[in-house]
Every structure is written in structure tokens, then in C-alpha cells.
Amino acid sequence: MSKVYDDPGGFHVEHIKDTLGIEIDMDELMSILREISWITEVDENIFSFSKSARPYEKLIEFNQDAFIRVLLNRYRGGMRFDSIDLENFRNIYLDFEDEKIDMTDAELEKCLRKCGIVWQERLFPVEAIIANDVKENLLEYIHSSFCEGKQVLYYKAIFRDLSDIFEYCFNLTDPMMLKPYLEYVCEPGEYYFFDEFVSKEKNVKIDHTSEIEEFLLAAGKPLSYDEIFVGLAHISKEIISSEIRANDNIVMNSREHYFHYDLFEFSSEDADRITEYINQEIDEEGYCIWSRVFERVKAEMPLFIENNSYLSSLGIRNSIAKKLSGRFTFESEVIGKLGQSINMAGVYSLYGRHHAPFSDNDVYLFSKEVSGGVIYFDALAENTVRVSRELFVLKEHIEFDIQEIDKALSTYLITGYMLIKDVDSFLMFPNIRYEWNIFLLESYLLHYSKEYALCNNGQSLNNVAGALVKKGGNFDEFEDVCADVLANGYVELNKSAALDFLAEQNLLTRRSYTGIEMALQKAKQIRNKKG
């Protein structure tokens, strides 16, 4: 029957019995129909097999006004639907109205639910939540907002905007209480109530993007995430964060601070002048660093800086990157010709080509300017060689006799590896244009030697760390060198002690190493084998 008779209006139980064509007691059939979850009793003795059917409520006659009077007098702070409160309500009603309530607990609860709103399993009479004069202000606010063109009103936004008139509504403890309250007091069909907002439209679609953009535009300045979260408290933090990350019209001014792109003031004359500055840098260096352009802008374009005084260097850079995207390629601090992909490693490579010879202090200052102090040594080595602590020169200015130098290194490396700190003499090395030292040896091992290598966890401007190893040998991996040093050293095999010891042995350029756990595991295995 359920497959054939899909009628929300339903069928009388006698018709169902006749259609089944089986011998069954009527009471037993009624019991079965009421037990099946997908069958709905839509009226007395009428059942529907349709998914869209709605159960009927048996009308119970009661004095609603009298019920509300009792609730307002004794239950302004809410009433629970437990047996104690229900019994108390019966007794109070008898005292107030001199009339006995002749209902079951289930029937009494059903009637009480029509006399107020239920919030967190407590029944509140509506006038105990919001007084009538405040209610009128609330309804006028909602009506005016929709007349002004708003599609939705979030309960949290209503609660925030009317906080002054809600000040003495002591039972209005949560913005989300407004949903059941408004459902109760508004005319049926006047509004549509959703989980987080109310609307005049049944099939309304939420446009979070426009709402967030309008909020940032109205602010007229960069705002922090926290300020945006507070101002748009009705929207979840996850949605706001996702929208901001994905929206090209929202620009980062500093870490977790954003503004709307339309606030940026940038005339065509400004665009042409800054374009000229960038092109001059690219022509001279092969790339452009934003910080250098910004220093020139501050010196030569004071009106532009004044018009955007609320923006940081990063905010201005990000806005210009959007504005001049058809003229240049912007990659973080680096600006190149349109279509030219140049990352920070490429910048260091070009720096080495254009500026050698240069000192360690020169490259340190350059790194602070363009890459937050991080030096791209491998990129510098594409065009330069470090010949001492203080000096980097062009590759063309030095020539290594690789065969003779590797032969000299073979006299040092007797075992599987040698700590670089133990190389204290260069008498066996052939003469070149520069005096041999530990920094020149580092350059040679990293980029020229055929038979030997330097194992370490990176390079440093002030030190040479690591171990000299033979390529293809048993200690070709830095992890294996560290494990052997730890296993044969007088050191506890835990992470903190191990890092301290490896730094003391000058194996690490800094007191951190991502492979330390594996090195410790291998060191323990080596010790266990030795007994």
C-alpha cells in the first residue's frame, strides 16, 4: 500500500483494512499502524503513507490567557516540564483561577508549549522575555531593515544592534533566543525563520562575500581578524577567514589585518611614476626589490603616501601588485618583468652576478632588506665563490685544480669521515689566487670536488660546520655521521643533549636538525652492537 497510495491526506483505517484483505482485529491494526515510523496519523483514525504527510494534533480546549497569567506570575524565570513543575502549575492554577486542570501531564505540556517559547528545555512566557514596548521597537527595527533592502537579519546582529533596549531584558540571555521568540510573536507567514537568521524570502541565498566587503569598506581602514569577527559576529569565524583568503578585493595590510582594495588611492599618474621606478631597478639589477621602490616613493611622492597613510608598506605593495598586475610580475618582495618568473633564489643569483666582489656584511644587509635575514647560499654559488669569511668573488676569478685538491684531501680523510673543525692545516693544498681557509674549503667541497663532500645541515654566514666525507662512502648521509658521532661520544642519547653535543662538535650550523630522531635511533643501535 505504501508504494501505491502516496497521499498526504491519508486513508481511514477501515479502508486500509479492506484494501489489505486480511482478517485482523481493528484495534490490533491501529496499534500496528501507530508503531510503524514511516506511517503518519494525519487525523483521528486516518493514516498516510506519504513522506510529506504531517501528523495532526488533537485539539485540547484550555484557557490560554489564564495559563499565561499563571506563567507570568510564578514562572517568569522559566518552567521545566518535569513532574514537579507540572504538579506545582496545577496547584497554582487552582489557587489563581479556582479551577482544576483535568489533563494528563502530556496534554498539559502540549498546552503550555502554546503559551510561550521553549529555550534550553525551559518554558518562558514571552512578556517575561521582552516587554511589549521593547517588542514594538524590535519589530519596527526588523520591518525597517527589510524595507531598506536587507535580505536577511542575523539574530546575533539584531541582538548587538539593539543591545541598549535589551539591557533590562534579563531573561533574554542568548541572541539565538530571538528565533523562537520572533516565531511566536510575528504573524504567520510574515517572515521565514532559519537557524541563524530571519528573512522575508523563503528561498533566500546568503551572500557572505558582499557582506564582508561592505563591512570593510564602511570601516575605511585596515581591521584585525578580531575586529572583523566582532563586527560580523553573526557569521562564523571559519566562513570569514575563508572568504578573506579567497577574495581578491580584500588585501592584507599586516599579519591578520585586512582592508578593502577600493580604499586604496592610486591615480594613473601614480601608476606611471611607480612603474618608472620599478623599470629602472629591473634595468640595473635584472629584478626589483619592493623595499627599495618604497623608499623612493616615500621620498618623492609625499601626497601619495599621505592619501594612503593608514596603510603599511605591505598593504601598499599588495595593492600596487593588484593595480599593476598587467605590467609586472610580483612575487612577495620581488618584482620582475611581466611573465618573468623570478623567485628569491633567482634574486640572490642575480645579486651575486651584478655585485661581486662583495663582503659578508654586504650580503647580510641585503638579506635583511629582501628576505628577512635568510641567505640563499646555493643561489649565490651559481655565480660566486666564497674565498674567505669576508669575501665573495666571481667564479671567473678563481680556478680550482680539482684533481690535486682532491688528492690533498685524501691525506686528511683516513677514516670514514672527518669533522671539518679538525682541518687545521692547508700545507698540502695547491696554490691558487687566494689563501686557503675553512670558508674556501667549504665552497670547494659543496660545489667542485669530484670525490669528497661536506655533510652538514646548512650554511652559515659566520661559521663552517659539518664533516668531510668521501662521496659514495659509508657516511655519505649527514644522518649517519651524526649517529656515529653521538654513539662514540660521551653524551646521553636524548634529543636535547644530542643537539647540544653536535653543536659543540661543530657539526650543526644551528642547534636544530630535522633528522635528529632518526640519528638518535641509529646511535642507540651502534652502541648496542658494541655492548
Structure description:
- With 531 residues, the chain is of the alpha+beta class.
- It folds into six domains: 1-56; 64-129; 132-199; 208-263, Orthogonal Bundle (Arc Repressor Mutant, subunit A), CATH 1.10.10; 268-342; 399-531, no CATH class.
- The chain contains 24 helices and 20 strands.
- It is elongated.
Question: How are the elements arranged and paired?
Answer:
Layout: E1 11-12, H1 13-20, H2 26-35, E2 40-43, E3 46-48, H3 64-74, H4 83-97, H5 105-112, E4 117-119, E5 122-124, H6 126-129, H7 132-147, E6 152-154, H8 155-161, H9 178-185, E7 192-193, E8 197-199, H10 208-219, E9 223-224, H11 225-231, H12 237-246, E10 250-254, E11 257-260, H13 268-285, E12 288-289, H14 290-300, H15 302-307, H16 313-323, E13 328-331, E14 334-337, H17 344-355, E15 358-359, H18 360-370, H19 377-380, E16 384-386, E17 391-394, H20 402-412, E18 417-419, H21 438-447, E19 452-455, E20 467-470, H22 478-487, H23 495-504, H24 516-530
Antiparallel strand pairs: 1-3, 2-3, 4-5, 6-8, 7-8, 9-11, 10-11, 12-14, 13-14, 15-17, 16-17, 18-20, 19-20
Helix pairs in contact: 3-4, 13-14, 22-24
Task: Give a short synopsis of this structure.
With 531 residues, this protein is of the alpha+beta class.
Give the overall shape: elongated
Q: What is the radius of gyration? A: 40 Å
List low-pLDDT spans: none
Main beta sheet: 3 strands, antiparallel
Which structural class should the secondary elements be placed in?
alpha+beta
- Indicate the proportion of strand residues: 5-15%
- Termini distance? 82 Å
Helix count, DSSP H or I runs of 4 or more residues: 24
Average of per-residue pLDDT values = 89
How would you write the strand order of the largest sheet? 1-3-2
Work out the count of structural domains. Answer: 6
Number of strands: 20
